[in-house]
What does this fold into?
Amino acid sequence: MKLGGIKFADVFGGYELVNIPASRIPQDAATAVFGAINSGILGATYTPLWYVGSQLVKGKNHFFIAQEVRATAKKDTCIVGLVINVPPSEKAAQGAGAKVVRIIEEADLPEDLQCVFSTAMQGLVGVGYKPLFYVGSQIVKGVNYYFICQAKGIYPGAEPYAVVVCINVFENTKSIVSIERIEDTVEDMKLGYAFTW
It folds into this structure.
């Protein structure tokens, strides 16, 4: 999926976007995420799938797409956005003080974007899609809108997975351009003048 010319949404304000598989994340991010996940969260476990990038704040925020497995009898599983902060310190490289500051379970989309998403996705059968957050837009023939979503088959025991949904709006017509699993495309993700997912 090509994202040349994409205008990233405000959710990415100040983030240095990396877009790589969690298995290849920088050491400081890996230490932070596993330190924070293993020490401070009760009731669920998290496995990072995709490292979105980092943001300099008071210390550094690391932004992941992750799989959440809840400590319930059925071990309910879902896909979430996970923001972990590592405070500024000499031990930051070891993830000292890292903590989860935000878990995004479902997007609170503005009304116009909710309309775009809901209208385009209605009528799909077999898989349910829940937007985690809006990525941004791209001017093409009309406008493409990009969403990170949790996808889950509509059958017992279906496991959720993360997808990028691209929806085009042209002359009041809203249509799906593509739905791609993050795991299928993440190895090709590169950022620069031509964005690739």
